[in-house]
Amino acid sequence: FVGKSKTGPGRMFELMDGFLKNDPGSLQKDILHHVEYTVARSRFSFDDFEAYQALAHSVRDRLIERWHDTQQHFKKKDPKRLYFLSLEFLMGRSLSNSVINLGIRDQCAEALSQLGFEYEVLAEQEGDAALGNGGLARLSACQMDSLATLDYPAWGYGLRYQYGLFRQIILDGFQYEQPDYWLNFGNPWEIERVHVSYPVKFYGSVTEEVVNGKKCNVWTPGETVEAVAYDNPIPGYGTRNTINLRLWAAKPSDGYDIESYNTGDYINAIVNRQKAEIISNVLYPDDRSYQGKELRLKQQYFFVSASLQDIIRRFKDVHGNFDDFPDKVALQLNDTHPSISIAELMRVLLDEEHLGWKKSWNIVKQVFSFTTHTVLPQALEKVPVDLFQNVLPRHLQIIYDINFAFMEELKKKIGQDYSRLSRMSIVEEGAVKNIRVANLSIVCSHTVNGVSRAHYELLKTRVFKDFYELWPEKFQYKTNGVTQRRWIVVSNPSLCALISKWLGTESWIRDIDLLAHLREYASNSDLQQEWMTVKKINKMRLAEYIETMSGVKVSLDAMFDVQVKRIHEYKRQLLNILGVIHRYDCIKNMGKDERKKVVPRVCIIGGKAPPGYEIAKKIIKLCHAVAETINNDDDVGDLLKLVFIPDYNVSVAELVIPGSDLSQHISTAGHEASGTGSMKFLMNGCLLLATADGSTNEIIEEIGLENMFIFGAKINEVPALREKDSTIKAPLQFVRVVRMVRDGYFGFKDYFKSLCDSVENGKDFYLLGSDFASYLEAQAAADRAYVDKTKWSEMSILCTAASAKFSSDRTIEDYAEETWGVQPCKCPF
Ligand code: GFP
Ligand code: GFP
């Protein structure tokens, strides 16, 4: 291994005698080295956290080696690269995932045990990197893992928020938000790149000037902020390829502000500069309506401007002109959040590269692909024109020009249908004029993707119907997937070992289709027994956690029934809680003999409510109030428990999901674009109780209705049900349980009134009432199935076998082939 120069750094590599070794002895030496020189502690006295830091740095060294080789290899081969632009990445912990993907977990454990430390204990020292809200952000993280594993020449780009998603604290059953200053104790998984930084400009004005005899628009910005790169190596599994997630942090620009300094206001000049850092300070909690927020627009532009400067710089390092740009660059827009990059690329090509409108537009329309993650109209971002004009005046001009050309083209096709023209326009007219970011993304992208087949159908027939009729060829879908590395190998090691034993290979970790072979053994009683033993171990882990967090002791014989996800009315945690109240009410009214037949349940709910979402917060409080009553009722005992798991995040999910028997995915049909939680539960052999919404429809095809508990209105039935007054259809049981809440059975009568109102008196938009009876039937079917242990274990095995389709490896291969046009580029060992 020889570098460029015999006297320069290349010589150093030669002296290093190749790569770092991965045997326990070498790892131990490295850990001690980092204890002494990185953590600066004595090698004779360091605690768990310091040992974790030293271990993390030893692993990071190995990541960096691979990362270097991968980047060099990509440089040499110059393949078409995929750039994944996303405002959110929910990475969780890095240590556990890295040691698995590098194949050094057991060696690390051995090295540590000789030093007197336990690997599992150290892994718990790491905090989560929670740079995202929910499904969308965790999907980005899963997709990065698949991109690396499948050797795609990909980069992720995003923002390095100083504060991740808020921490949820529960006091007296109410949610409180606490800032998550996740960088407090340093972050060994990132590499600060002081030399990789770009100026990002805001505000100012645009003037028309003549440059070299040509009329040009010249933007004179009013503020410049520096974007500094922080690189996060993402290792693939079973490959040397290690790709990069580059996150930008805002720093004050180095430029000299003569005016402020001349006026003598030195201190204020510095304080003002510091304000630049605000841009990358905080992640917006998902309240699904960002309208009018200047900081959010600045965050979006900040990260795409820096990313595009970096991407164009890398391209220009090798290419003399832009002709090959679309053959070398694919830009993926993860939802509308990075869509301002369309106008930014146009601006760079027009104003800085002077390619002219036609040529620039021709490039732009070939490089962007857009994936939308929602069906909710209120979640489609709009930016007030006034705000745009102030923050990004030149970009607004460009968007107007794009829209003008689009409207002209459209008129030629559809004539003077003004209502359709106005619906499709990128500019929304009205009391407040807005830019419709989704329309901009569709007009300028070559491909628009949905995240499940059902989502795609809704995009075609409802959300983007006008656009689909105009450009049917643009629309595709890639059903979401999750990575089996994180969701089985890391989070459920016992199940991982069992699967490998029965399949006779570990290859399924890379080649997920092999998992389907588990079907062949689903009815084998030996496997069933081992399978249920693994489940029990995981349930024990979860039960211990529940006791620590909530003080509630739960029985391992009970069915663990889980719903964990962001709290939202459409996800219907309220339906779940009302179902629990019904179960409680039934038990209370039973005789002794009848009670003997009850299947014991532990109902587990977890998730964060967006800080400004009042109803979601009331749902959390209701859950606690009901739990308080049930869990303290000796009459009920182990037959029913309700627990709320606070501060749900990726590492909590890694504990909860393997220990679940049943999980609920019960959104009102037509509201969940895909859903990915269900896939993680499926992989872990957990049965699903669900509505036929989002990707569940495809899960049904893989596993069969007989192995699931499906209930409720179908997507196409929902609009008609809403037309009718849904309360008319609500069954008596529903009226009764809502009445219990209204009447103060669980206390807080006045506080819960608006929650009850939201599902009664003709206001039950999410159809809890009309789905209630079939929900209870599905729950009863789950109880019956749980009693037959043999049947239940067979169904559980079939769930894992059926999860093969829902690996993000499949999703990424489909994107690479059908949307991005990128090929694997494998770095040699
Ligand atoms: C990348 C990395 C650099 C690294 C080079 C060469 O550069 O840090 O030195 O690869 O390995 F970011 P670009 O692809 O950004 O040019
Ligand atoms: C959103 C959608 C989900 C979808 C994910 C990933 O998740 O249906 O599965 O994106 O595509 F709502 P949340 O961010 O809302 O959790």
TrEMBL record:
GO MF annotation, one: pyridoxal phosphate binding
Superkingdom as given in the UniProt entry: Eukaryota
Protein name per its UniProtKB record: Alpha-1,4 glucan phosphorylase
Keyword Transferase in record: yes
Protein task: Allosteric enzyme that catalyzes the rate-limiting step in glycogen catabolism, the phosphorolytic cleavage of glycogen to produce glucose-1-phosphate, and plays a central role in maintaining cellular and organismal glucose homeostasis.
N6-(pyridoxal phosphate)lysine PTM sites in chain numbering: K680
Single Gene Ontology BP annotation: glycogen catabolic process
Enzyme Commission number(s) from the entry: 2.4.1.1
UniProt keywords, alphabetically: Allosteric enzyme, Carbohydrate metabolism, Glycosyltransferase, Pyridoxal phosphate, Transferase
